[in-house]
Amino acid sequence: EYLNKYDIPLENIIAVATDGALSMVGRYRGFATYLKEKVPGIRTIHCVLHRQNLEAKYLSPKLHEALQFCIKSINQIKAQPLKSRLFAKLCEENNELFNQLLLHTEVRWLSRGVCLQRLVNLFDSTTEFLNEINPVLSNELQNNKNHIFYLADLFGKFNDVQTKLQGKDVTIIQARTILLGFHVKLNLFRSSLLRKDYKYFSNLQQL
To answer: Count of alpha carbons within 13 Å of 32, Cβ hemisphere only?
Structure first.
């Protein structure tokens, strides 16, 4: 309907990127299959945004463990309205900029960086609150503080790249340039960390 509405000739389409969901790229049915019937020579690829999100899941065991502690802590506070309200009150008493943590969802690839950054912003209030309801989890957060702050920085950088790749006006050439530029930056980030220079990692720099 969209192609017909804007009078886009099907023969002009040479490739299609999807998020990989079965309904999109199914072998026997789905959008990509339907499009291949209309345009036999079309090439189907996995969306670059979703590929990046999948790659970002492969963390070292220690970082993965730290991330799980973050998710558990957030869920512990957000799961019950009463705890959420008490936490908000504590944040206000501590003069925090925010009074709520943000949930992490697998479906939205930007949520991981955003929820980690909010946790970092409210780290002291979070550990203080958890110390009353779950001292063990509070202690785990404290022990993994460096890893958590690093993860917030890392996923923040992933989010910056992924945000730049979105939008109907971004061409494949621009997307490739953004990704190649980020690949070069990764080497710069790595060498800076090896020198214990945290100027590119604002959260780590606080520590």
So the answer is: 20
Whether 135 shows a pLDDT value over 90: the answer reads yes
d(CA 106, CA 188): 29
Q: What is the CA radius of gyration of the chain?
A: 21
Contact 122, 91 (CB under 8 A): yes
Residue with structure tokens 């697998």? 106
pTM for this entry? 0.77
Q: Whole-angstrom Cα distance, residue 157 to residue 81?
A: 32
Contacts (Cβ under 8 Å, ≥6 apart) of 83: 76, 77, 133
Which distant-in-sequence residues (6+ apart) come within 8 Å of 69 by Cβ?
A: 137, 140, 141, 144, 148
Is the separation of the CB atoms in 63 and 70 below 8 Å? Answer: no
Secondary element (H or E) of residue 44 = strand 43-46
Q: What are phi and psi of 85, to 5 degrees?
A: -70, -40
